[in-house]
Amino acid sequence: MLKKVLIANRGEIAVRIIRACRELGISTVAVYSEADKNALHTRLADEAVCIGPAKSNKSYLNIKNILQAACGTGSDSIHPGFGFLSENANFAKMCEESNIKFIGPSYQVIDLMGNKSNAKELMKNAKVPVVPGSEGSIRDFNEATQIANKIGYPIMIKAAAGGGGKGIRLVHSEEELKEAYEIVKQEALVSFNDDEIYIEKFIENPRHVEIQVLADEYGNGIHLGERDCSVQRRNQKVLEESPSTVLDEKLRKKMGEAAINAVKASHYSSAGTIEFLVDKHKNFYFMEMNTRIQVEHPVTEWVTGVDIVKEQLRIASGEKLSYSQKDIMVSGHSIECRINAENPENNFMPCPGSINDLHLPGGNGVRIDTAVYTGYKIPPVYDSMIAKIIVHAENREAAISKMKVALEECVIDGIDTNIDFLYQILENENFISGNFDTSFIKKEFGI
Ligand code: ADP
Ligand code: ADP
Ligand code: MG
User: Fold this and answer.
1) Ligand 2 near 272 CB (within 6 A)
2) What is the distance in A from the centroid of ligand 1 to the CA of 85?
3) pLDDT in tens, the chain (447 residues)
């Protein structure tokens, strides 16, 4: 078993990983920026090393300082969490070269899947249905025009290296193409330092349904069912649930099998997510693979009983999967709400500041993953997600009701949050009846 894990992240996911290590008797090393001296992850780990100033590129993205911290503390492994360096193939490679186990898939697989356009080609060859579109990347604007005309509008232009809802643009007609082409190319270059782009057919009114997978280093792979992440604002997830209201047993089995094919085709190991779109005729299409733990993993943990982070640690230790497919049973219904420090009244502007008073909900079937506490000062330089509330109940209706009670109990004084907005989603007729798709927030709230 791994002996000492350095956690190259911050916030709730760093805390989540520290806890899983503790349960397995593994020592933990936190890294922190100067802005995070008093952060919970810094205080909770067995050891903590400062890796630089507040700005991410000087600290949480500083590969040299992180590897130095790992070597200096005698860590045998690094867990990257999500965001930051979690999908950086070069970082994973440098870990390996420094004899430090990167807790995730091999750097070759990260590299392969990190280019969403290449990943789609690989999936097509593995007989996984993919969103129709360009074969690989687009060379120039001329080619973009040809392909768009061939597949038919509306289309999406996407950054091959994209993530976090950035570098995506919907194009309705040829007139709009030129401007969108330039914008996505520019955004891709600025955000991902890579202006490679590709084109996809715009799937109308789809559901975003993703399959959680686990695979060990001996070629065994299983899936843990689906998460429905269709409640999105500007292509970013707001609320997630499992199971999805649009899957029946037959479709769940088919999508699970496709996900396993994807795992086998890419020689994947560790935890990962295959993201699909499901159209109104229940056709499903591969969109991308996320080669890391995901924000919304707790809903899957709750309906299956599998601790996904502990499984990652076991797999990285060289153990075989502790489960086979027939062990995986989905029970009840789970929902997650992302609590963000932001102001819905002001275009969801991030709203950092001091938390003067804090009361988070609890009770039967309520899980809180957070790193904030009373008196905590949210730094302005990082992601605005400050907590996740996850509930579990016997069915969807009971889970919605439980989440509403949980949100009502929340007291977060001193900053603005999206809690009221989340509550409105839970009260929406179409959400309640399961009659929604990825355009739900835009349609219902006009934002
Ligand atoms: P995606 O939305 O890309 O499908 P996730 O739902 O797992 O995948 O979200 C990852 C997002 O979480 C990143 O794009 C980033 O904006 C955000 N993030 C990264 N690191 C942190 C962190 N330490 N705490 C909170 N949020 C983070
Ligand atoms: P990211 O890497 O930023 O997570 P994705 O490729 O996963 O980007 O897409 C993010 C979201 O954008 C999806 O969940 C979906 O709502 C929307 N989307 C992406 N591609 C398409 C498409 N071809 N048709 C319709 N919606 C799409
Ligand atoms: Mg995605």
Assistant:
1) no
2) 11
3) 999 999 999 999 999 999 999 999 999 999 999 999 999 999 999 999 999 999 999 999 999 999 999 999 999 999 999 999 999 999 999 999 999 999 999 999 999 999 999 999 999 999 999 999 999 999 999 999 999 999 999 999 999 999 988 999 999 999 999 999 999 999 999 999 999 999 999 999 999 999 999 999 999 999 999 999 999 999 999 999 999 999 999 999 999 999 999 999 999 999 999 999 999 999 999 999 999 999 999 999 999 999 999 999 999 999 999 999 999 999 999 999 999 999 999 999 999 999 999 999 999 999 999 999 999 999 999 999 999 999 999 999 999 999 999 999 999 999 999 999 999 999 999 999 999 999 999 999 999
Q: Ligand 2 test: best mutation among 157, 278, 289, 438, most atoms within 8 Å of CB?
A: 438
374 CA from centroid of ligand 3 (Å): 33
pTM, two decimals, is 0.96
Query: What residue's CA is closest to ligand 1, atom 9?
Result: 295
CATH number at residue 363: 3.30.470.20
Counting atoms of ligand 1 from 1, which one is nearest the CA of 240? 6
Task: State the Cα–Cα distance between residues 329 and 166, nearest whole angstrom.
Answer: 35
SS3 214: strand
Whether 215 and 170 map to the same domain: the answer is no
Cα 61 to its chain centre, rounded Å, is: 18
Q: How far apart are CA 240 and CA 334, in angstroms?
A: 8
Residues 161 and 90 in one domain: no
Task: Please tell me whether residues 416 and 299 are part of one structural domain.
Answer: yes
Q: Is 9 in the pocket of ligand 1 (CB under 6 A)?
A: yes
Question: For residue 34, what is the DSSP state?
Answer: G
Distances (CA, A) of 77 to 60, 74, 95, 101: 16, 9, 8, 4
Report the amino acid identity of residue 76: D
CATH of residue 155's domain is 3.30.1490.20
Could you identify the atom of ligand 2 that is nearest to the CA of residue 232?
Answer: 16
Domain that holds residue 165: 132-201
Q: What is the number of domains present in the chain?
A: 3
